[in-house]
Protein backbone atom coordinates (compact mmCIF):
# COMPACT_ATOMS: atom_id res chain seq x y z
CA UNK A 1 0.00 0.00 0.00
CA UNK A 2 1.43 3.40 -0.95
CA UNK A 3 1.72 6.06 1.72
CA UNK A 4 -1.01 8.35 0.35
CA UNK A 5 -3.52 5.48 0.41
CA UNK A 6 -2.44 4.55 3.93
CA UNK A 7 -2.96 8.11 5.17
CA UNK A 8 -6.35 8.28 3.47
CA UNK A 9 -7.33 5.12 5.33
CA UNK A 10 -6.26 6.65 8.64
CA UNK A 11 -8.33 9.77 8.06
CA UNK A 12 -11.30 7.68 6.94
CA UNK A 13 -11.02 5.57 10.12
CA UNK A 14 -11.59 8.74 12.13
CA UNK A 15 -14.34 9.93 9.74
CA UNK A 16 -12.33 12.99 8.65
CA UNK A 17 -13.02 14.44 12.07
CA UNK A 18 -10.58 17.27 12.76
CA UNK A 19 -11.23 16.99 16.48
CA UNK A 20 -9.55 13.56 16.35
CA UNK A 21 -6.32 15.10 15.03
CA UNK A 22 -4.21 13.78 17.92
CA UNK A 23 -5.35 10.22 17.11
CA UNK A 24 -4.70 10.78 13.42
CA UNK A 25 -1.16 12.04 14.07
CA UNK A 26 -0.42 9.06 16.31
CA UNK A 27 -1.63 6.67 13.61
CA UNK A 28 0.42 8.50 10.95
CA UNK A 29 3.53 8.35 13.12
CA UNK A 30 3.19 4.67 13.99
CA UNK A 31 4.87 3.20 10.90
CA UNK A 32 8.09 5.23 10.65
CA UNK A 33 8.27 6.88 14.05
CA UNK A 34 7.78 10.38 12.64
CA UNK A 35 5.36 12.40 10.51
CA UNK A 36 7.06 13.62 7.34
CA UNK A 37 6.37 16.78 5.37
CA UNK A 38 4.68 14.63 2.72
CA UNK A 39 2.45 13.17 5.44
CA UNK A 40 1.48 16.63 6.61
CA UNK A 41 0.66 17.75 3.08
CA UNK A 42 -1.56 14.71 2.54
CA UNK A 43 -3.24 15.02 5.92
CA UNK A 44 -3.78 18.73 5.33
CA UNK A 45 -5.40 18.03 1.97
CA UNK A 46 -7.66 15.34 3.44
CA UNK A 47 -8.64 17.34 6.53
CA UNK A 48 -8.71 20.73 4.77
CA UNK A 49 -6.05 22.09 7.11
CA UNK A 50 -2.85 23.91 6.22
CA UNK A 51 0.56 22.35 6.85
CA UNK A 52 1.45 25.24 9.25
CA UNK A 53 -1.75 24.55 11.19
CA UNK A 54 -0.81 20.89 11.52
CA UNK A 55 2.74 21.76 12.54
CA UNK A 56 1.40 24.17 15.13
CA UNK A 57 -0.45 21.31 16.83
CA UNK A 58 2.36 18.78 16.45
CA UNK A 59 5.01 21.10 17.86
CA UNK A 60 3.08 21.50 21.11
CA UNK A 61 3.41 17.83 22.06
CA UNK A 62 6.60 16.19 23.21
CA UNK A 63 6.22 12.80 21.54
CA UNK A 64 5.31 13.90 18.03
CA UNK A 65 8.33 14.07 15.72
CA UNK A 66 8.63 15.49 12.20
CA UNK A 67 12.11 14.12 11.44
CA UNK A 68 13.52 10.57 11.41
CA UNK A 69 14.23 9.80 15.05
CA UNK A 70 15.18 6.14 15.08
CA UNK A 71 13.32 2.87 14.90
CA UNK A 72 13.70 2.74 18.67
CA UNK A 73 13.06 6.08 20.34
CA UNK A 74 14.53 6.11 23.84
CA UNK A 75 13.34 8.74 26.32
CA UNK A 76 15.26 9.19 29.57
CA UNK A 77 13.19 10.16 32.62
CA UNK A 78 14.86 13.33 33.94
CA UNK A 79 12.85 13.72 37.15
CA UNK A 80 14.64 14.63 40.36
CA UNK A 81 14.06 11.14 41.75
CA UNK A 82 15.71 9.70 38.63
CA UNK A 83 18.67 12.03 39.15
CA UNK A 84 19.01 10.75 42.71
CA UNK A 85 18.96 7.13 41.55
CA UNK A 86 21.63 7.21 38.86
CA UNK A 87 20.25 9.04 35.83
CA UNK A 88 23.69 10.39 34.92
CA UNK A 89 25.14 6.88 34.71
CA UNK A 90 22.22 5.63 32.63
CA UNK A 91 22.51 8.62 30.28
CA UNK A 92 26.25 8.08 29.95
CA UNK A 93 25.84 4.37 29.21
CA UNK A 94 23.16 4.90 26.56
CA UNK A 95 25.34 7.55 24.89
CA UNK A 96 28.34 5.23 24.99
CA UNK A 97 26.47 2.21 23.65
CA UNK A 98 24.67 4.14 20.91
CA UNK A 99 27.53 6.45 19.97
CA UNK A 100 25.27 9.52 20.11
CA UNK A 101 24.46 12.32 22.52
CA UNK A 102 21.01 13.09 23.92
CA UNK A 103 18.93 14.68 21.17
CA UNK A 104 20.63 12.74 18.37
CA UNK A 105 19.79 9.74 16.20
CA UNK A 106 22.31 6.99 15.52
CA UNK A 107 23.84 6.98 12.00
CA UNK A 108 22.17 3.65 11.16
CA UNK A 109 18.77 5.13 11.99
CA UNK A 110 18.06 2.49 14.59
CA UNK A 111 18.13 4.55 17.77
CA UNK A 112 17.12 8.02 18.87
CA UNK A 113 18.08 9.21 22.36
CA UNK A 114 15.98 11.92 24.02
CA UNK A 115 14.92 13.23 27.41
CA UNK A 116 11.52 13.79 28.93
CA UNK A 117 10.07 14.73 32.31
CA UNK A 118 8.71 12.33 34.93
CA UNK A 119 7.17 9.23 33.33
CA UNK A 120 5.34 8.03 36.45
CA UNK A 121 8.00 5.56 37.59
CA UNK A 122 9.56 7.37 40.56
CA UNK A 123 9.16 4.30 42.75
CA UNK A 124 11.49 2.36 40.43
CA UNK A 125 13.85 4.91 38.96
CA UNK A 126 15.93 5.29 36.90
CA UNK A 127 13.66 4.40 34.02
CA UNK A 128 13.28 5.01 30.30
CA UNK A 129 10.58 4.71 27.68
CA UNK A 130 11.52 2.82 24.51
CA UNK A 131 8.79 3.41 21.94
CA UNK A 132 6.66 4.33 24.96
CA UNK A 133 7.27 0.99 26.68
CA UNK A 134 8.78 1.47 30.17
CA UNK A 135 12.00 -0.16 31.31
CA UNK A 136 12.64 0.43 34.99
CA UNK A 137 15.28 0.05 37.72
CA UNK A 138 18.06 0.38 35.18
CA UNK A 139 21.80 0.17 35.65
CA UNK A 140 24.73 0.12 33.24
CA UNK A 141 24.54 -3.64 32.77
CA UNK A 142 20.84 -3.57 31.89
CA UNK A 143 21.35 -0.70 29.45
CA UNK A 144 24.15 -2.65 27.77
CA UNK A 145 21.92 -5.72 27.45
CA UNK A 146 18.94 -3.74 26.13
CA UNK A 147 20.94 -2.11 23.35
CA UNK A 148 22.74 -5.37 22.51
CA UNK A 149 19.54 -7.40 22.23
CA UNK A 150 17.75 -4.76 20.14
CA UNK A 151 20.71 -4.67 17.78
CA UNK A 152 20.44 -8.44 17.49
CA UNK A 153 16.93 -7.95 16.13
CA UNK A 154 14.95 -8.94 19.22
CA UNK A 155 11.47 -7.43 19.11
CA UNK A 156 10.64 -4.95 21.85
CA UNK A 157 7.74 -7.01 23.22
CA UNK A 158 9.99 -10.07 23.44
CA UNK A 159 12.70 -8.07 25.17
CA UNK A 160 10.18 -7.01 27.81
CA UNK A 161 9.31 -10.66 28.49
CA UNK A 162 12.99 -11.54 28.55
CA UNK A 163 13.66 -9.05 31.32
CA UNK A 164 10.68 -10.40 33.23
CA UNK A 165 10.41 -7.66 35.83
CA UNK A 166 6.62 -7.50 35.95
CA UNK A 167 4.78 -7.60 39.27
CA UNK A 168 4.63 -11.31 40.07
CA UNK A 169 1.89 -10.86 42.67
CA UNK A 170 -0.39 -8.95 40.30
CA UNK A 171 0.63 -10.45 36.98
CA UNK A 172 -1.64 -9.50 34.11
CA UNK A 173 -0.89 -11.06 30.76
CA UNK A 174 -2.43 -8.10 28.93
CA UNK A 175 0.03 -5.63 30.47
CA UNK A 176 3.48 -6.45 29.10
CA UNK A 177 5.73 -4.10 30.98
CA UNK A 178 8.59 -4.00 33.40
CA UNK A 179 6.57 -2.13 36.00
CA UNK A 180 6.00 -3.16 39.59
CA UNK A 181 3.00 -1.31 40.97
CA UNK A 182 4.31 -1.37 44.54
CA UNK A 183 1.09 -1.20 46.53
CA UNK A 184 2.52 -1.02 50.03
CA UNK A 185 -0.65 -0.31 52.04
CA UNK A 186 -4.09 -1.12 50.60
CA UNK A 187 -5.84 0.57 53.51
CA UNK A 188 -9.33 -0.12 54.82
CA UNK A 189 -11.60 1.55 52.28
CA UNK A 190 -10.51 2.22 48.74
CA UNK A 191 -8.54 -0.91 47.85
CA UNK A 192 -9.22 -3.26 50.75
CA UNK A 193 -12.60 -4.51 49.53
CA UNK A 194 -13.21 -4.39 45.79
CA UNK A 195 -16.47 -5.95 44.58
CA UNK A 196 -16.73 -5.50 40.78
CA UNK A 197 -20.07 -4.04 39.73
CA UNK A 198 -21.47 -3.54 43.23
CA UNK A 199 -21.08 0.23 43.35
CA UNK A 200 -22.66 0.78 39.94
CA UNK A 201 -25.54 -1.58 40.71
CA UNK A 202 -26.35 0.31 43.92
CA UNK A 203 -26.17 3.68 42.18
CA UNK A 204 -28.59 2.59 39.45
CA UNK A 205 -31.20 1.90 42.12
CA UNK A 206 -31.33 5.67 42.75
CA UNK A 207 -32.38 8.62 40.65
CA UNK A 208 -29.84 10.94 39.10
CA UNK A 209 -30.53 13.61 41.73
CA UNK A 210 -30.16 11.07 44.52
CA UNK A 211 -26.79 9.95 43.14
CA UNK A 212 -25.53 13.53 43.12
CA UNK A 213 -26.90 14.06 46.63
CA UNK A 214 -24.99 10.98 47.81
CA UNK A 215 -21.73 12.18 46.30
CA UNK A 216 -22.31 15.62 47.84
CA UNK A 217 -23.08 14.13 51.26
CA UNK A 218 -19.86 12.12 51.17
CA UNK A 219 -17.83 15.34 51.06
CA UNK A 220 -15.66 13.85 48.29
CA UNK A 221 -13.32 16.39 46.74
CA UNK A 222 -11.45 15.91 43.48
CA UNK A 223 -8.20 14.03 43.92
CA UNK A 224 -6.41 15.73 41.05
CA UNK A 225 -4.96 18.53 43.19
CA UNK A 226 -7.47 21.39 43.14
CA UNK A 227 -9.80 19.59 45.55
CA UNK A 228 -13.08 20.95 44.13
CA UNK A 229 -16.16 19.29 45.68
CA UNK A 230 -17.21 16.49 43.34
CA UNK A 231 -20.93 16.63 44.07
CA UNK A 232 -21.00 20.38 43.46
CA UNK A 233 -19.26 19.93 40.10
CA UNK A 234 -21.73 17.22 39.03
CA UNK A 235 -24.75 19.27 40.12
CA UNK A 236 -23.51 22.30 38.19
CA UNK A 237 -23.00 20.24 35.04
CA UNK A 238 -26.46 18.70 35.26
CA UNK A 239 -28.05 22.12 35.70
CA UNK A 240 -27.03 23.28 32.21
CA UNK A 241 -29.40 22.28 29.42
CA UNK A 242 -27.68 20.89 26.33
CA UNK A 243 -28.13 18.18 23.66
CA UNK A 244 -25.25 16.20 25.16
CA UNK A 245 -23.15 15.94 28.28
CA UNK A 246 -19.78 14.24 28.61
CA UNK A 247 -17.85 12.45 31.34
CA UNK A 248 -14.07 12.72 31.09
CA UNK A 249 -11.49 10.88 33.16
CA UNK A 250 -8.26 12.84 33.51
CA UNK A 251 -5.56 10.14 33.42
CA UNK A 252 -2.82 12.61 32.50
CA UNK A 253 -0.85 11.96 35.68
CA UNK A 254 2.04 14.31 34.96
CA UNK A 255 3.01 15.81 38.33
CA UNK A 256 6.58 14.63 39.05
CA UNK A 257 6.64 12.03 41.78
CA UNK A 258 3.04 10.90 41.19
CA UNK A 259 2.19 7.37 40.07
CA UNK A 260 -0.93 6.34 42.03
CA UNK A 261 -3.19 6.48 38.95
CA UNK A 262 -0.84 4.02 37.27
CA UNK A 263 -1.72 1.47 39.94
CA UNK A 264 -5.47 2.06 39.64
CA UNK A 265 -5.45 1.83 35.85
CA UNK A 266 -3.41 -1.37 35.96
CA UNK A 267 -4.87 -3.29 38.88
CA UNK A 268 -8.27 -1.70 39.54
CA UNK A 269 -9.56 -0.29 36.22
CA UNK A 270 -13.09 -1.53 36.96
CA UNK A 271 -13.33 0.91 39.86
CA UNK A 272 -12.48 3.79 37.54
CA UNK A 273 -14.79 2.72 34.72
CA UNK A 274 -17.68 2.09 37.13
CA UNK A 275 -17.17 5.54 38.64
CA UNK A 276 -17.43 7.09 35.18
CA UNK A 277 -20.64 5.12 34.54
CA UNK A 278 -22.10 6.32 37.86
CA UNK A 279 -21.31 9.89 36.79
CA UNK A 280 -22.92 9.26 33.41
CA UNK A 281 -26.09 8.03 35.14
CA UNK A 282 -26.14 11.11 37.36
CA UNK A 283 -25.54 13.55 34.52
CA UNK A 284 -27.58 11.93 31.81
CA UNK A 285 -24.40 11.56 29.76
CA UNK A 286 -24.05 8.88 27.13
CA UNK A 287 -20.40 9.31 26.21
CA UNK A 288 -17.24 9.07 28.27
CA UNK A 289 -13.57 9.53 27.44
CA UNK A 290 -10.44 8.48 29.31
CA UNK A 291 -7.62 10.92 28.49
CA UNK A 292 -4.58 8.67 28.95
CA UNK A 293 -1.14 10.26 29.14
CA UNK A 294 1.23 9.08 26.41
CA UNK A 295 3.68 7.84 29.03
CA UNK A 296 1.06 5.23 29.98
CA UNK A 297 0.42 4.08 26.42
CA UNK A 298 1.57 0.61 27.41
CA UNK A 299 -1.71 0.37 29.38
CA UNK A 300 -3.93 1.29 26.43
CA UNK A 301 -4.71 -2.22 25.18
CA UNK A 302 -5.27 -3.44 28.73
CA UNK A 303 -7.75 -0.63 29.41
CA UNK A 304 -9.52 -1.26 26.12
CA UNK A 305 -10.05 -4.88 27.13
CA UNK A 306 -11.51 -3.74 30.43
CA UNK A 307 -13.86 -1.35 28.61
CA UNK A 308 -15.07 -4.15 26.33
CA UNK A 309 -15.63 -6.43 29.31
CA UNK A 310 -17.54 -3.66 31.09
CA UNK A 311 -19.82 -2.99 28.12
CA UNK A 312 -21.27 -6.48 28.35
CA UNK A 313 -22.68 -5.73 31.81
CA UNK A 314 -24.05 -2.24 31.19
CA UNK A 315 -27.81 -1.83 31.43
CA UNK A 316 -27.89 1.64 29.84
CA UNK A 317 -26.26 3.37 26.89
CA UNK A 318 -22.78 4.59 27.74
CA UNK A 319 -20.08 4.66 25.07
CA UNK A 320 -16.55 4.87 26.44
CA UNK A 321 -13.31 5.41 24.55
CA UNK A 322 -9.65 6.20 25.23
CA UNK A 323 -7.98 9.39 24.03
CA UNK A 324 -4.21 9.10 24.06
CA UNK A 325 -2.28 12.26 24.92
CA UNK A 326 1.04 13.11 23.31
CA UNK A 327 3.22 14.49 26.09
CA UNK A 328 2.35 17.85 27.67
CA UNK A 329 2.25 18.43 31.44
CA UNK A 330 -0.13 21.36 31.09
CA UNK A 331 -2.80 19.00 29.69
CA UNK A 332 -3.36 17.87 33.26
CA UNK A 333 -5.30 21.14 33.61
CA UNK A 334 -8.88 20.30 32.68
CA UNK A 335 -9.48 22.98 30.06
CA UNK A 336 -6.12 22.30 28.37
CA UNK A 337 -7.04 18.62 28.37
CA UNK A 338 -10.31 19.42 26.61
CA UNK A 339 -8.47 21.48 23.98
CA UNK A 340 -6.20 18.51 23.35
CA UNK A 341 -9.18 16.16 23.08
CA UNK A 342 -10.55 18.45 20.38
CA UNK A 343 -7.38 18.06 18.32
CA UNK A 344 -5.76 21.36 19.26
CA UNK A 345 -2.74 22.59 21.14
CA UNK A 346 -3.31 21.84 24.81
CA UNK A 347 -3.44 25.46 25.90
CA UNK A 348 -5.65 26.34 28.89
CA UNK A 349 -8.86 28.18 28.16
CA UNK A 350 -9.88 31.45 29.73
CA UNK A 351 -12.50 30.85 32.40
CA UNK A 352 -15.41 31.40 32.82
CA UNK A 353 -17.17 29.66 31.23
CA UNK A 354 -16.10 26.53 33.06
CA UNK A 355 -16.13 23.03 31.52
CA UNK A 356 -19.29 22.08 33.43
CA UNK A 357 -21.08 24.59 31.19
CA UNK A 358 -18.93 24.73 28.04
CA UNK A 359 -16.65 21.73 27.92
CA UNK A 360 -15.84 19.07 25.33
CA UNK A 361 -17.16 20.16 21.91
CA UNK A 362 -18.92 23.02 23.68
CA UNK A 363 -21.11 20.72 25.76
CA UNK A 364 -21.39 20.51 29.58
CA UNK A 365 -18.61 18.24 30.73
CA UNK A 366 -17.47 16.77 34.03
CA UNK A 367 -13.73 16.19 34.29
CA UNK A 368 -12.54 14.17 37.28
CA UNK A 369 -9.33 12.29 37.77
CA UNK A 370 -8.72 8.55 38.05
CA UNK A 371 -8.72 8.34 41.84
CA UNK A 372 -11.88 10.43 42.16
CA UNK A 373 -13.89 8.06 39.96
CA UNK A 374 -12.52 5.03 41.83
CA UNK A 375 -13.61 6.57 45.13
CA UNK A 376 -17.10 7.30 43.76
CA UNK A 377 -17.49 3.58 43.06
CA UNK A 378 -16.41 2.64 46.56
CA UNK A 379 -18.64 5.25 48.20
CA UNK A 380 -21.67 3.58 46.61
CA UNK A 381 -20.26 0.13 47.32
CA UNK A 382 -19.46 0.70 51.02
CA UNK A 383 -21.59 3.71 51.93
CA UNK A 384 -21.18 7.38 52.76
CA UNK A 385 -20.94 6.69 56.47
CA UNK A 386 -18.03 4.30 56.02
CA UNK A 387 -16.23 6.83 53.84
CA UNK A 388 -16.72 9.63 56.35
CA UNK A 389 -15.39 7.47 59.17
CA UNK A 390 -11.98 8.34 57.74
CA UNK A 391 -10.32 11.72 57.55
CA UNK A 392 -11.27 15.05 59.11
CA UNK A 393 -14.50 17.11 59.02
CA UNK A 394 -13.21 19.29 56.16
CA UNK A 395 -11.19 16.52 54.53
CA UNK A 396 -13.30 13.36 54.77
CA UNK A 397 -12.22 9.98 53.47
CA UNK A 398 -8.99 8.48 52.25
CA UNK A 399 -6.54 9.09 49.44
CA UNK A 400 -3.54 7.44 47.79
CA UNK A 401 0.01 8.69 48.28
CA UNK A 402 2.78 8.09 45.77
CA UNK A 403 5.90 7.90 47.94
CA UNK A 404 9.41 8.17 46.54
CA UNK A 405 12.85 9.51 47.34
CA UNK A 406 14.99 8.69 50.34
CA UNK A 407 12.73 6.04 51.83
CA UNK A 408 13.12 2.33 52.50
CA UNK A 409 9.72 1.48 51.02
CA UNK A 410 8.78 3.55 47.97
CA UNK A 411 5.36 2.84 46.56
CA UNK A 412 1.67 3.57 46.97
CA UNK A 413 -0.10 3.94 50.31
CA UNK A 414 -3.78 4.40 51.11
CA UNK A 415 -3.97 6.89 53.96
CA UNK A 416 -6.75 8.78 55.74
CA UNK A 417 -6.79 12.54 55.39
CA UNK A 418 -5.43 14.12 58.54
CA UNK A 419 -2.50 11.74 58.96
CA UNK A 420 0.55 13.37 60.56
CA UNK A 421 3.74 13.87 58.58
CA UNK A 422 5.68 12.03 61.29
CA UNK A 423 3.43 8.98 60.91
CA UNK A 424 3.94 8.93 57.16
CA UNK A 425 7.72 9.21 57.54
CA UNK A 426 7.72 6.30 59.95
CA UNK A 427 5.45 4.20 57.76
CA UNK A 428 7.56 4.60 54.61
CA UNK A 429 10.93 4.23 56.33
CA UNK A 430 12.24 7.74 55.71
CA UNK A 431 16.02 7.84 55.79
CA UNK A 432 17.55 10.82 57.60
CA UNK A 433 14.91 13.17 56.12
CA UNK A 434 15.52 16.89 55.65
CA UNK A 435 12.79 18.10 53.28
CA UNK A 436 9.39 16.73 52.28
CA UNK A 437 7.84 17.82 49.00
CA UNK A 438 4.08 17.38 49.43
CA UNK A 439 2.10 17.45 46.20
CA UNK A 440 5.04 17.42 43.78
CA UNK A 441 6.99 20.47 42.59
CA UNK A 442 3.76 22.48 42.33
CA UNK A 443 2.91 21.63 45.94
CA UNK A 444 4.46 22.60 49.26
CA UNK A 445 7.93 21.95 50.66
CA UNK A 446 8.21 21.53 54.41
CA UNK A 447 10.98 20.86 56.89
CA UNK A 448 11.02 17.20 57.94
CA UNK A 449 11.07 18.39 61.55
CA UNK A 450 7.46 19.54 61.13
CA UNK A 451 6.22 16.08 62.08
CA UNK A 452 2.94 17.31 63.55
CA UNK A 453 1.69 18.90 60.36
CA UNK A 454 -1.03 16.90 58.66
CA UNK A 455 -1.99 15.97 55.13
CA UNK A 456 -5.37 17.62 54.70
CA UNK A 457 -7.06 20.51 52.98
CA UNK A 458 -6.83 22.34 56.29
CA UNK A 459 -3.03 22.12 56.30
CA UNK A 460 -1.12 20.31 53.53
CA UNK A 461 -3.30 19.47 50.52
CA UNK A 462 -1.79 17.20 47.90
CA UNK A 463 -2.55 15.65 44.55
CA UNK A 464 -0.80 12.51 45.77
CA UNK A 465 2.96 12.99 45.41
CA UNK A 466 5.09 12.65 48.56
CA UNK A 467 8.84 12.98 47.97
CA UNK A 468 11.37 12.63 50.77
CA UNK A 469 14.84 14.19 50.53
CA UNK A 470 17.55 13.35 53.04
CA UNK A 471 20.11 15.59 54.71
CA UNK A 472 22.66 14.33 52.18
CA UNK A 473 20.83 16.00 49.29
CA UNK A 474 21.66 19.37 47.75
CA UNK A 475 18.45 21.39 48.04
CA UNK A 476 19.59 23.82 45.36
CA UNK A 477 20.01 20.90 42.93
CA UNK A 478 16.45 19.83 43.69
CA UNK A 479 15.13 23.34 43.14
CA UNK A 480 17.04 23.62 39.88
CA UNK A 481 15.49 20.40 38.57
CA UNK A 482 12.00 21.52 39.57
CA UNK A 483 12.29 25.02 38.09
CA UNK A 484 13.72 23.66 34.82
CA UNK A 485 10.72 21.34 34.65
CA UNK A 486 8.29 24.28 34.88
CA UNK A 487 10.21 26.36 32.34
CA UNK A 488 10.15 23.44 29.90
CA UNK A 489 6.51 22.57 30.48
CA UNK A 490 4.98 26.05 30.29
CA UNK A 491 2.73 26.18 27.24
CA UNK A 492 3.99 29.71 26.57
CA UNK A 493 0.50 31.14 26.08
CA UNK A 494 0.71 33.80 28.78
CA UNK A 495 3.68 36.06 29.48
CA UNK A 496 3.70 35.84 33.30
CA UNK A 497 4.23 32.07 33.16
CA UNK A 498 6.38 31.98 30.02
CA UNK A 499 8.78 34.73 31.09
CA UNK A 500 8.26 34.77 34.85
CA UNK A 501 9.37 31.19 35.41
CA UNK A 502 12.52 31.89 33.42
CA UNK A 503 13.16 34.92 35.63
CA UNK A 504 12.68 32.80 38.75
CA UNK A 505 15.07 30.17 37.42
CA UNK A 506 17.67 32.84 36.69
CA UNK A 507 17.30 34.19 40.22
CA UNK A 508 17.84 30.68 41.53
CA UNK A 509 20.99 30.38 39.42
CA UNK A 510 22.30 33.57 41.03
CA UNK A 511 22.12 31.92 44.42
CA UNK A 512 23.65 28.69 43.12
CA UNK A 513 26.47 30.52 41.35
CA UNK A 514 27.35 32.86 44.22
CA UNK A 515 26.08 36.00 42.49
CA UNK A 516 23.02 36.66 44.67
CA UNK A 517 22.56 39.91 46.53
CA UNK A 518 20.38 40.48 49.58
CA UNK A 519 17.71 42.23 47.49
CA UNK A 520 17.33 39.06 45.42
CA UNK A 521 15.46 37.52 48.37
CA UNK A 522 12.75 40.09 47.75
CA UNK A 523 12.98 39.62 44.00
CA UNK A 524 11.98 35.96 44.40
CA UNK A 525 8.82 36.96 46.27
CA UNK A 526 8.03 39.74 43.79
CA UNK A 527 8.38 37.58 40.70
CA UNK A 528 6.48 34.76 42.41
CA UNK A 529 3.58 37.14 43.04
CA UNK A 530 3.49 38.28 39.41
CA UNK A 531 3.60 34.72 38.06
CA UNK A 532 0.91 33.45 40.44
CA UNK A 533 -1.41 36.44 39.89
CA UNK A 534 -0.96 36.76 36.16
CA UNK A 535 -0.95 33.19 34.86
CA UNK A 536 -4.10 31.85 33.25
CA UNK A 537 -3.87 28.29 34.61
CA UNK A 538 -2.63 26.24 37.52
CA UNK A 539 0.88 25.73 36.16
CA UNK A 540 1.87 29.35 36.64
CA UNK A 541 -0.40 29.62 39.64
CA UNK A 542 1.64 27.02 41.51
CA UNK A 543 5.12 26.90 39.91
CA UNK A 544 6.59 29.63 42.20
CA UNK A 545 5.84 27.37 45.19
CA UNK A 546 9.06 25.57 44.33
CA UNK A 547 11.07 28.54 45.57
CA UNK A 548 8.76 30.32 48.00
CA UNK A 549 7.90 27.32 50.19
CA UNK A 550 11.52 26.12 50.35
CA UNK A 551 12.63 29.66 51.20
CA UNK A 552 10.08 29.71 54.03
CA UNK A 553 11.02 26.27 55.33
CA UNK A 554 14.80 26.76 55.02
CA UNK A 555 15.50 30.53 55.14
CA UNK A 556 19.18 30.03 55.93
CA UNK A 557 19.63 28.17 52.64
CA UNK A 558 19.19 31.36 50.64
CA UNK A 559 20.68 33.79 53.15
CA UNK A 560 23.90 31.78 53.44
CA UNK A 561 24.24 31.71 49.65
CA UNK A 562 24.51 35.50 49.46
CA UNK A 563 28.11 36.58 48.93
CA UNK A 564 29.28 40.04 50.06
CA UNK A 565 29.99 42.23 47.06
CA UNK A 566 28.33 39.83 44.59
CA UNK A 567 28.26 41.18 41.06
CA UNK A 568 25.00 42.08 39.34
CA UNK A 569 24.21 39.49 36.68
CA UNK A 570 20.44 39.88 36.93
CA UNK A 571 18.37 42.93 36.07
CA UNK A 572 16.93 44.95 38.93
CA UNK A 573 13.24 44.33 39.48
CA UNK A 574 10.79 47.12 40.18
CA UNK A 575 7.72 45.41 41.60
CA UNK A 576 5.59 48.55 41.59
CA UNK A 577 6.30 49.28 37.93
CA UNK A 578 5.83 45.64 36.90
CA UNK A 579 2.53 45.42 38.76
CA UNK A 580 1.30 48.63 37.08
CA UNK A 581 2.25 47.21 33.66
CA UNK A 582 0.43 43.98 34.44
CA UNK A 583 -2.72 45.73 35.64
CA UNK A 584 -2.72 47.99 32.57
CA UNK A 585 -2.40 44.96 30.28
CA UNK A 586 -5.37 43.28 31.95
CA UNK A 587 -7.49 46.43 31.54
CA UNK A 588 -6.59 46.61 27.84
CA UNK A 589 -7.50 42.94 27.35
CA UNK A 590 -10.92 43.57 28.88
List the domain count as a whole number: 5
Mean pLDDT: 92
Largest sheet: 6 strands, mixed
Quickly give the CATH architecture of the largest domain: 3-Layer(aba) Sandwich
Describe, in plain words, how this protein is organized in 3D.
This protein is α/β, with parallel strands linked by helices and 590 residues long. The protein has five domains: 3-58, no CATH class; 72-170, 3-Layer(aba) Sandwich (Glutaredoxin); 185-388, NADH-ubiquinone oxidoreductase 51kDa subunit (Rossmann fold), CATH 3.40.50; 398-471, Roll (Ubiquitin-like (UB roll)); 476-589, de novo design (two linked rop proteins) (Up-down Bundle). The chain is 44% helix and 13% strand. It has 25 helices and 14 strands. The chain has helices at residues 3-13, 21-30, 37-47, 51-58, 80-84, 87-98, 140-151, 156-163, 198-204, 208-218, 230-239, 260-267, 269-283, 300-311, 334-341, 370-382, 384-388, 421-428, 475-489, 495-513, 519-534, 538-542, 545-553, 555-559, 575-589, and strands spanning 72-77, 111-116, 128-130, 133-135, 183-185, 246-251, 287-292, 319-324, 365-369, 398-405, 411-416, 433-438, 444-447, 465-470. It has a six-stranded mixed sheet. It has a four-stranded mixed sheet with strand order 2-1-3-4, covered by helices on one side. The longest helix has 19 residues, at 495-513. Residues 167-171 and 577-590 have low confidence and may be disordered.
